[in-house]
Write a structure and sequence with these properties.
Blueprint (H helix, E strand, L loop, with lengths): L1 E5 L9 H13 L6 E8 L3 E3 L2 E5 L15 H11 L3 E4 L4 H13 L3 E4 L4 H9 L4 H12 L4 E4 L2 H9 L5 E3 L18 H5 L6 E6 L8 H11 L3 E6 L11 E4 L5 H10 L2 E4 L8 H8 L4 E4 L4 H4 L5 E4 L4 H14 L1 H15 L2 H15 L11
Parallel strand pairs: 1-2, 1-5, 2-4, 5-6, 6-7, 7-8, 9-10, 9-12, 10-11, 12-13, 13-14
Antiparallel strand pairs: 3-4
Helix pairs in contact: 2-3, 4-5, 8-12, 10-13
Length: about 375
């Protein structure tokens, strides 16, 4: 079986989609009888270890992202590769290139709906475009042989737009990299905080939908016995005294060290389609305080952390205090056990293979959404 993934959501500092594709590529590449090709944007046409870069112009201020403008180069690479199946990882030109290649190759195409496009566009342009974007999503994803969504909330949105044959396919976490053993007892000294200070962490992009002002206001309410570490690009410059900012993209091993050395993860984002950083924290052996919105209600159980009302710094501060009163260490241990059981990448890839076999006419026991 030759599987080809195609996406523009792949850049040096990109997030969940790249994490998913890299994990998948590593695991499929060592499975007998399977070949995996990955098509991503680059400055020129090249190939290395099954990863093909296809020329696409860089986005101004896009932090390494490139936006394909010509369909033909992507379609031509797919035609040369002759895959048995294509998976699309974004809703833009590469998706239409895959559908165009399908007409010549006569192979199934799966669409993975990683991002809530109508919500993303309305956040940036206003609600007046929502109807048009929803119609676009409905048309595009209605063309795929099967659609995968990372959470039930996303699958329900697609079904509400009339998209059929939608399946929930959660993502996974690297249990080796994100591990309690990565804990560094020297971190508090590095940060200049006392050993008994309760250390919280958030890691990710400082984009609007992450609702970082909620975290900062929460920290003001919690006071000096608590300290927050903000890790990632585009972080705020003005923060309370009990907040430390690492305003740069950090490699996974560095994030894993910081997470395992903290006491809990804080996340105020209320529009998450999945939330890989939640799994990474839980795999690191720390519990989570997040908002009861988006996909978090599916991921964070009572054994792994607490959910609070969205956009409410007081509710988040109260949830943090309650978390520590329940015993953050025990909750962290339970969180690690939970992701080991449900979110190991090997299990995710095996589930993906079930979808691939099904669309190729060799069905495994899977149930469609609705």
């Amino acid at each position: 079986m030759h599987i080809a993934d195609i996406t523009m959501f792949y850049a040096p500092a990109s997030g969940g989609v790249r994490t998913y594709l890299d994990a998948k590529h590593r695991r499929l590449s060592v499975k007998p009888g399977i070949r995996h090709s990955l098509l991503i944007p680059g400055s020129h046409l090249s190939e290395q270890d099954g990863v093909y870069t296809v020329p696409a112009p860089a986005l101004p201020f896009g932090k390494g992202y490139r936006f394909p403008l010509r369909l033909a180069p992507w379609r031509n690479v797919l035609q040369d590769l002759q895959p048995d199946l294509i998976e699309v990882g974004d809703p833009y030109l590469t998706a239409w290139a895959a559908l165009d290649a399908r007409r010549q190759l006569d192979v199934p195409v799966i669409g993975f709906y990683h991002s809530d496009l109508p919500l993303l566009v309305s956040n940036r342009m206003g609600n007046w475009v929502t109807t048009n974007v929803e119609a676009y999503v409905s048309k595009l994803y209605g063309n795929f042989d099967r659609v995968l969504a990372p959470s039930q909330v996303m699958a329900d949105k697609l079904s509400g737009l009339g998209v059929r044959n939608v399946f929930v396919q959660p993502l996974g976490v690297d249990l080796q990299t994100f591990n309690p053993s990565a804990r560094d007892p020297e971190l508090r000294a590095e940060l200049g905080i006392a050993e008994d200070t309760r250390l919280l962490i958030f890691a990710g992009r400082g984009s609007k939908e992450k609702n970082l002002p909620v975290l900062l206001n929460c920290m003001k309410r919690l006071g000096p016995r608590y300290h927050l570490l903000l890790v990632g690009s585009s972080m705020p410059a003005q923060v309370p005294d009990n907040v430390t900012v690492v305003d740069e993209f950090c490699p996974a091993t560095q994030v894993a060290r910081l997470m395992a050395s903290a006491d809990a993860l804080l996340h105020a984002g209320d529009q998450e389609t999945f939330g890989l950083v939640i799994l990474e924290a839980m795999a690191s052996g720390i519990p989570v305080v997040a908002v009861a919105a988006g996909a978090f209600k599916e991921i964070v159980t009572e054994q792994c952390g607490l959910l609070c009302a969205p956009n409410n710094p007081l509710a988040m501060a109260n949830a943090v205090r309650e978390l520590f009163s329940r015993g953050s260490v025990t909750l962290g241990e339970q969180a690690r056990q939970h992701v080991e059981r449900h979110y190991a990448w090997d299990a995710v890839v095996n589930s993906l293979l079930g979808h691939y076999h099904a669309v190729l006419g060799d069905p495994w026991p899977l149930t469609a959404n609705g």
